[in-house]
Amino acid sequence: MKIFLDTANADDIRTADGWGILDGITTNPTLAGREKRPFREIVEEICDIMGDRPVSAEVVATDAEEMLTEAREVSSWASNVVVKIPLIPEGIRAITVLCQEGIRVNCTLCFSPAQAVLAAKAGATYISPFVGRLDDIGHDGMELVAQIRQILDNYDYLHSQIIASSLRHTQHFVQAALIGADVATIPFQALEQCFHHVLTDVGLARFLDDWDKAGLSIF
Fold it and tell me: Which residues are part of the catalytic machinery?
């Protein structure tokens, strides 16, 4: 499973990239708005950090023709930009055209298997089911990921990858991997949580203490 960081903060991206485990970045208008900087400046900096790894940047238009105009502009900023398009009828229209033009698309705000089928049929490179937001209203968000996985496998939609999105905690991350999501996109704080286990901390402290008591040295 690939790991994307769900953020528009360059400092968090550099920190996580230093761990050597990042495969891409997803952003959205909310995350970009928190940075208090021009959108293009944010996207170009992130793309530069990530090299050839994908960076999702979202349009804000809701009309297909306006989406196409915005998508073509955003995709021109860097070769690794993936344009995020919402899963609405006008969005599906835009996705169909963009995919024909060779522009990679992340179809976002997916909340049902039926929506995912439409996105795959339109040619979306990525489909992003929002797990946490479904959990928030009493649904099983991970069940949606599992259903989409089965549907894409049933019909060999090899061009579309599942990005398990709106992940809130480590268990979401683990469940996405068990189900077979192609990608998990996760906030910086939740990714940090994946490192931690009380027994790791206790074990390391014990090892170091025993080493010091024995007076050992590597050099």
Answer: 84
